[in-house]
Design a protein that fits this description.
The chain is of the alpha/beta class and 233 residues long. It contains nine helices and ten strands.
């Protein structure tokens, strides 16, 4: 079985190796929004959308097809080394051999938009189905340390930017601390919000599930990288 990371959403960022795997596949599975991105490269394969509710059943069927010698591809967002750990664990429980084809991560795009180097960035994700207290404590620690820029992936179902900002204020992070929020990176409607932690906590707008937060070192907001869209908000 092959797992293909499709990138942040712009079809032009799907790697050549990922395109090849899709063209050669007998079965392609993934969440519908991901399958919409890769559809142009699916030639003769059967397509099986999955959701959080039925992903175990769909992956079980894909593993059975792989055992029969079919070429099965599982698609995921971004880069599989950044935000697909739980999906990879589900795949690896079912098959002995898994080929991993990395993709471009939204973290890389956020760095490009903000003019930051990955060498100077600490990455923290809340995209895990566990209590977030430990990860939030790590975030507070490094914000107080204030030696590296921080990129944070919020948790779409219950811990988004305004809630995270409120938590950080309660933990003593200064209200004037700058934060930038990118939404829908590389997609139509890409947006960038920039302001203080206090202003972020007061936001009532709903953010996309495809959001990413950037906390720069010091008190200055991040700059605009090459090709960055105009700010919104």
């Amino acid at each position: 079985m092959t797992v293909v990371a499709v990138g942040p959403g712009d079809p032009r960022l799907l790697t050549l190796r990922g395109q090849q795997a899709l063209r050669e596949a007998d079965l392609v599975v993934g969440f519908k929004t991901v399958l919409d991105v890769v559809q142009p490269w699916i030639e003769g394969a059967a397509v099986r959308p999955m959701s959080y509710r039925d992903q175990e059943e769909v992956l079980e069927d894909a593993a059975a097809q792989a055992a029969l010698g079919r070429r099965c591809v599982v698609c995921c967002w971004g880069d599989l080394n950044v935000s697909a750990r739980e999906l990879l664990e589900r795949v690896r429980r079912r098959v002995d051999q898994v080929e991993l084809i990395p993709g471009i991560s939204s973290v890389q795009i956020a760095c490009a938009r903000a003019g930051l180097s990955l060498e100077d960035v600490l990455f923290i994700t809340l995209h895990q189905r566990k209590e977030p207290a430990e990860d939030l404590a790590e975030l507070v620690h490094y914000l107080k340390d204030n030696r590296r820029h921080i990129i944070l992936l919020p948790r779409p179902w219950d811990l988004m930017p305004a809630g995270i900002a409120s938590n950080l204020l309660d933990q003593g992070i200064p209200a004037e601390r700058p934060v930038t929020i990118f939404q829908r990176l590389t997609l139509d409607g890409e947006e960038r919000w920039q302001g203080s932690l206090e202003a972020c906590a007061a936001l009532s707008q709903e953010f996309s599930d495809l959001s990413i937060m950037v906390f720069p070192v010091g008190t200055s907001p991040v700059g605009s990288g090459a090709g960055a869209p105009p700010e919104n908000g």
